Amino acid sequence: MSYRLGNEPTPSNRLWATVVVGLQWLTIVLFALLTLDVLWGVLSRYVLGSQSRWTEEFAIYAIVWVSLLGAALMFRERGHLGVDYFVGKLDPSARRFTAIVAELAVMAFAGFVLIYGGFMLVSETLRSGQVTPAMGWKVGYLYSVVPLSGLFILAFSIEHLVTGRTTASADLIGKEID
């Protein structure tokens, strides 16, 4: 978040900014580990002659984590894909209304599918005792990224509504690039 001169951030704004930066760093570290893992998998297979058993499994779960956490971060920055051709044809007040309705739909999806459904997925998988074959990790903990990303998407959606970023982005829709 940027702040204007004389508009100092509150402690809660600083805390939220710290949480967002933490999420960014977690995603960066996971992506770096994914890169190193794939590199090690290739080297161990073609140089050493026998691929490490855990590299493929780790890569699968790392890419899921990076994808879901990265999607939440991109949602916050409005970097996600959107089909806005028809919305761009509407007048500005209708665009704002459409943006708010879309934000509410995202909140419902994040709340029901990602948070509630993800929590059910995690709890059922933990209850079943399922573990990964190569690493022996509990699968439920690996699935915890689903409700975690849902919480972030929901929080970012609330942030959009509170800060008015939905209406600002809606006003940009329909403007032609010269």
From TrEMBL:
One Pfam match: DctQ
Localisation: Cell inner membrane
TM segment ranges: 15-38, 58-76, 97-119, 139-158
Protein keywords: Cell inner membrane, Cell membrane, Membrane, Transmembrane, Transmembrane helix, Transport
Record protein name field: TRAP transporter small permease
Recorded family membership: Belongs to the TRAP transporter small permease family.
Annotated ranges, domain Tripartite ATP-independent periplasmic transporters DctQ component: 37-164
InterPro entries given in the database record: DctQ (IPR055348), TRAP_DctQ (IPR007387)
Bilayer topology: Multi-pass membrane protein
Domain of life: Bacteria
Main location: membrane
